[in-house]
Design brief:
Blueprint: H1 4-25, H2 28-51, H3 58-73, H4 82-107
Length: 108
C-alpha cells in the first residue's frame, strides 16, 4: 500500500499541473463552461415553469411580442419611414441584379 501513495501523489501533482496549464492557455474556457452551465440551468427552469402554466397559441405569443416591439419604436422620430427604406432596398436590389447580369454576360 505504501508504494501506491507516492504514485498517487505524483498523479495528483501531474493533474494539477495539467489543469493549471490548460487554464492558462485557454483563459476563456472557464467562462465559456460557466456560461453554458448557467444557460442550461435557466433553460431547464424555463421548461419546468412552462410545464406548470397553461398553453397558449403561437399566434397569441407573436401578437403580444410584436405589440410590445411596436410600442418600443412608437415615439422615435429620427427613424426613416419604412416605405422609404423598402423602396431604397428595392432600387438597390434591382441595380445589383442588373449589374450581376451584365457581369455574367461579359464573362461568357
Amino acid at each position: 500500500m505504501a508504494q501506491n501513495e507516492p504514485n498517487n501523489e505524483a498523479m495528483k501533482q501531474a493533474l494539477k499541473e495539467a489543469l493549471a496549464e490548460t487554464l492558462h492557455e485557454q483563459r476563456d474556457l472557464p467562462h465559456e463552461v460557466f456560461t453554458e452551465v448557467l444557460e442550461d440551468l435557466a433553460f431547464a427552469e424555463a421548461i419546468r415553469e412552462g410545464k406548470q402554466t397553461e398553453q397558449v397559441e403561437r399566434d397569441e405569443v407573436f401578437a403580444k411580442s410584436l405589440g410590445a416591439a411596436r410600442g418600443m419604436w412608437k415615439e422615435r422620430d429620427e427613424l426613416p419611414d419604412l416605405r422609404t427604406l423598402r423602396q431604397e432596398f428595392d432600387d438597390r436590389s434591382a441595380s445589383d441584379l442588373e449589374a450581376d447580369r451584365a457581369s455574367s454576360r461579359d464573362g461568357k
